[in-house]
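pasting for the record
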Amino acid sequence: MVTIDIIGGGVAGLALAAGLDPHRFEVRIHERAPERHDLGTVYGLWPHALRSLHDLGLADPVRECARPATGVRVSTSTGRRLGGGTAPADSWLIQRPDLLAVLGRAKPAAVQSFDGAVEDPTTLTGDLVVGADGVHSVTRAAAWGCPGRRTGAMALRGVVNGDIDEFAPGDPWLQEFWGRGSLFGISANTRGVTNWFASMPEFRATKSEVLAWAQHHFAQFPAPVQAVLERVDPERVLLNSIMETPTLTRYVRRRFVLVGDAAHAMSPNMGRGACEALVDGATLAQCLSDFPLDVALREYQRRRWGRSQAVRAASGVVRRIALNWP
């Protein structure tokens, strides 16, 4: 039996665990913050992510707690249309806790769970150690020796009470407004709330100071932005630096393999981070199920490296364009 240590119980780690036969694999998940608070911000799932969920037998349970995505519209800070498009068929919006709950319920009962941070992945005894531990991955630091890097931008994000129709009547598309070296976006969510996010160049300040800055800075943006800002609750806001994983040429090194943000953390501007993490986990599970271990890792590298790195690079380009819009 192959033993697998998975560091990180997020989307990629749980998707991997859900796809492995417990009669063939002994799986141990190490999660440092199993009970962390979550605001219920929304993930976008594109059709290729739904195909991976279908392979795991989870597409229908995800659809049951999600809502269809309609499309994306990008405008300037004065409301002039820049572009956008209709979402592909079978694209969905789902709250992060709901997606994790579906994946968690699919995890075989034989999977062992350990709470607490892994300080040194080299001490784990698995035949395979999977770094599903995010942009600050200790797995990548130990086996690749490269930390995540700052992009020079930061993001505020949160949810406000009320359906998207209350802020953009009759227009449930994801909307982004670019201008003045920043962007502000709103999107539909589930459970009677609306998702919002803002990005700007990074500066040193507390969350409350950045929120005050944003409320002043975006005061002249179009009406949907003002309607959202009027309802923002500071207790339901997160502030974070936007980090990226440096360009990696390989996701596999000896008995270590990277998935999700540990492999390709990207700017959030294309809404693809959760999709790529989900596909990573499902693809690695399929490769491990279909091939001997060494062949499976080569096949995972072949299937996932080029595609995920292309999305990571493209997301960075969109971020730079958006935050340099006049």
